[in-house]
Amino acid sequence: MSRGNYRRTIFPDTDHAERYLFLLNRVTARRKWIIVDWCLIPNHYHLVIQLTDGGLSDGMRELNGCYSRWSNALNGLTGTGHLVRNRFKSVPVEDDPYLLRLLQYVPNNPVRAGLVTAPDEWTWSGFRAAVGLEYPRAFHRPSVALAFFDNDPGRARDLYRRHVELGADPNGPVPWSDQEGGDAWLDRQT
After folding, report:
1. Positive or negative CA dihedral for 23, 26, 29, 30?
2. pLDDT at 10
C-alpha cells in the first residue's frame, strides 16, 4: 500500500486512476507480478501481489515514481515535493488465514472510507471482476483468489462474495493499514 503525502488525494479523477492502472499493467507485465486483488481510494491504494521472481521494491519504485512524475507534471507540481508518502508499505502474506482476511479488507476499503455502501458499487477495485460483474483488468488475476473458495467458478464467486460481506464491519480491525492500531492487529494475528 501507499498513501498520498500528508494524506492528500493522489487519484483526483478518472484520468489519474486510469493512468495509474495503465502503469500498474506495465509494471506487472515487466516484473511478472500476479495481482490477486487491488483497490484505489482517492488518497491511497492497496495491492495484493504474488511475486514470481522478486522485484517488489524495484517495481514499486517504478510504479510510484512514474505515476508521481506524470501527476506532478500534469498538475504543475514538479519540484514541490513527493506525491506519495515515503516508501510503500508491504506486509508479507505467509499463511492462508491472513490472505483470506486481506481478501475481505481490500474490497471493503471504499466502504470503510464512506465512499460507497457496498464493494460492488466501487469501480476502482478488483471486486466487481472477482464476482463476475465485469471483466478483470489485464493485470488482475481474480482466479487466484477465487481458487481459495471452490474449484467451480460460479460457486467460488458466490463464496467469495459472502466472505467479503462477512468482513464489512466498519468497526472491525483494520489490517494492512497505516492507521493507528493496524500493525497491532497484524501482530495479534501472526
Report:
1. negative
2. 84
